[in-house]
Amino acid sequence: MPRRKKTFLCGHQGYGQICHRCDQTRTQREKADHARAEKKQKKQEWEAAFAQDPIDLRDLPDHVVVKARSIIAGLMTNTNYRDFGGKRLRHNRFIISIPVTRNYRMLCRDCGSFLVPEEVLSHEEYNVCKPGG
Ligand SMILES: [Zn+2]
C-alpha cells in the first residue's frame, strides 16, 4: 500500500504521526529560546563576577576586565609584577603600574610582601590623574 499524505489538525499535509513542518518550527523556536536563556545566564554570571573583584572593573571593556582579572589572579599567587611588565612609579615608589592592555594600566600598592590592586585606569585617565603624586 503506498503511503498517503494526510492533513494534520494544523492544516499542513504530510506523512506520519506528527506534522514535521510544525515540529521543525517548534524545534527551531526551542533552540532560539535555549540560546536566549543561555545568553541571559552568561550575562548574569558576567555581572555577578564583578562582585568578586577586589577592585571595580565594571566600567571597563570586556577584554580589559578579562586581562585585569588574570593579572590580579597572578599577583594573588605571587607572580612577580615584573612578569606582567609592571614598573614602580618614579614619583611614588610604593605604587606599581602594570600594563593591562595597550590603553589600560593597573595601579597596585606595594604592601611589602604583597601587592594590593587599587584601580585600572585608561591611558588618558592615567595621564590626567598622575596617580600617587
Ligand atoms: Zn503543521
Descriptive notes:
With 133 residues, this protein is an alpha+beta fold. It has two domains: 14-48; 56-129, RelE-like (YaeB-like fold), CATH 3.30.2310. It is 39% helix and 20% strand. The chain has three helices and six strands; from the N terminus they run ββααββββα. It has helices spanning 20-49, 62-76, 123-129, and strands spanning 6-7, 13-14, 87-88, 95-99, 104-110, 115-122. It has a four-stranded antiparallel sheet. β5 (104-110) and β6 (115-122) form a beta hairpin. The radius of gyration is 27 Å and the shape is rod-shaped. The termini are far apart. The relative contact order is 0.10. The mean pLDDT is 92. The protein binds zinc ion. Zinc ion (ZN) binds at residues 8, 10, 12, 19, 21-22. The site of zinc ion has 6 residues, from α1.
Radius of gyration, in Å, reads 27 Å
Give the strand content.
Answer: 15-25%
Number of strands: 6
> What structural category characterises the helix and strand content?
alpha+beta
Label the CATH architecture of the largest domain: 2-Layer Sandwich
Q: How large is the count of helical segments?
A: 3
CATH topology of the largest domain: the name is YaeB-like fold
At the fourth level of CATH, the homologous superfamily of the largest domain is: RelE-like
Major β-sheet strand ordering: 3-4-5-6
CA-based shape: rod-shaped
